[in-house]
Design goal:
- By secondary structure, the protein is an alpha+beta fold.
- It has eight helices and ten strands.
- The N terminus is likely disordered.
């Protein structure tokens, strides 16, 4: 019963922070697919973008994540924004008052970050090896020690290979990581000078060479576009590029809220 009552308490789901002094709404669907209006909660020259919500924990499902993202993309059309971490809810009996206290207590921090993000956008670039098997063939050709160990194990029974193959696996992974790092560095050479900041995210699959985000001046987006196009022309036979943006600066601003 207590859990049910807490869920029924009024709450506000928070999407982002913008420089705004007026109460207004945005024509976009709020998280959870409810009919709640996405609106501003203002304190002085700052505002939180929020929508009414039950006091629940939103799972990181594709639909919830996309709803959160769509709101930010809508707001981004008009404002510089600071993304707030997915799932942030003001869930007390006075959510508006708490949000205004948040803006008040962190006013200088948010104002400074908004100034730094003014006129900036994030662009994302992923590069994948087109033929992963060919890359492993290259590793064998370039590393005689790995090749010798592979050939030696090929002549042994499967139950022995299961144990003695561990060092081989580690050596292959190290060689793969080295090749990935080398090629990622080459990809970034013409792109780094165009960006204010670059963030290299972890490659979560063997096929991924680069997973990078670029914070750039919006006026230079066409320059980055052309540089990526040139990379595709030069390396398209070996690499597949996935280029996205502009998006909110997810990789360069991560507002975490504690209501304690």
């Amino acid at each position: 019963m207590q859990d049910l009552m807490s869920q029924l308490q009024p709450a506000k789901y928070i999407y982002c922070i913008i420089p705004c002094q007026e109460e207004r709404t945005f024509d976009v669907v709020s998280i959870g697919g409810s009919a709640s209006t996405v609106h501003t909660i203002v304190w002085e020259s700052l505002a939180v973008i929020a929508s009414d919500s039950a006091n629940v924990r939103y799972e990181s499902t594709r639909s919830n994540m996309m709803a959160h993202q769509k709101v930010l993309e809508k707001v981004m059309q008009e404002y510089t924004l600071l993304p707030v971490r997915f799932g942030t809810i003001a869930n007390s009996t006075c959510p508006i008052e708490n949000i205004q206290k948040l803006l008040s207590s962190r006013f200088q921090e948010f104002s400074q970050l908004l100034q730094e993000m003014q006129g900036k956008v994030e662009m994302g670039l992923k590069a994948f090896w087109r033929d992963e098997k060919a890359v492993f063939t290259e590793i064998m050709a370039e590393n005689p020690e790995i090749r010798r160990l592979r050939d030696r194990l090929a002549r042994k029974p499967a139950e022995i290979v299961r144990f003695e193959g561990v060092p081989l696996g580690k050596m292959v992974k190290e060689a793969l990581d080295h090749k990935r790092s080398q090629e990622a560095g080459e990809i970034l050479v013409p792109l780094r000078p165009l960006a204010e900041q670059v963030r290299e995210n972890v490659a979560l699959a063997d096929r991924i060479v680069l997973n990078a985000a670029f914070l750039i001046d919006a006026d230079r987006s066409s320059e980055l576009d052309h540089a990526v196009e040139e990379l595709d022309r030069e390396h398209g036979d070996r690499l597949v590029f996935k280029y996205v943006g502009p998006t909110p600066p997810y990789n360069f601003v991560d507002i975490v809220v504690s209501w304690e």
